[in-house]
Amino acid sequence: TLVKQLDTILCTLNDILNESSKLLWELRQDAAACLGLLCTVLSYEAERIFKWLFIKFTTGSRDEVKLLYLVAAQRALEAAGERKAFSHVMQLVMSNLQSILENVDTPELLCHSVKCILQVARCYPHVFSTNFRDTVDILVGWHIDHTQKHSLTQQVSGQWGFIICTKLVLVFKL
Sorted alphabetically, which InterPro entries does this protein's record hold (predicted)? Predict the structure, then answer.
């Protein structure tokens, strides 16, 4: 039933995510979580859902809505977790997340895209390893940018440290 109605469900969730009322922020966050869980439940349709999600992110114009798409991706990746339910689409997901990371221009989008990448690094380290160098380069760039707030610099430092540790575990099989 969900697969038969998937286009309608995605359209409805997209309408909720794009609602402009600030009063509905919690509902919009719940809709993002719902989208992520839908992707996990329909893991055999994950490629279709992730492609839809990344197209919506790329064509979106409002950062707050883009943030919700990243929340949905993060929720899907977290819910699938160690089960490796997305093995068949992880390269697609990682490529899109890397592209997002390369193009974000706000600290909020940076942090959420990195959270998604960290989830990939935890559960699919072999997929992440091909993007390791580019990810670190981008995070170092944000870290050394003296115009950023100290709190963002600290957060990026912590994420950068985790990513380097992940890579060391991969390389040395610690």
Answer: ARM-like, ARM-type_fold
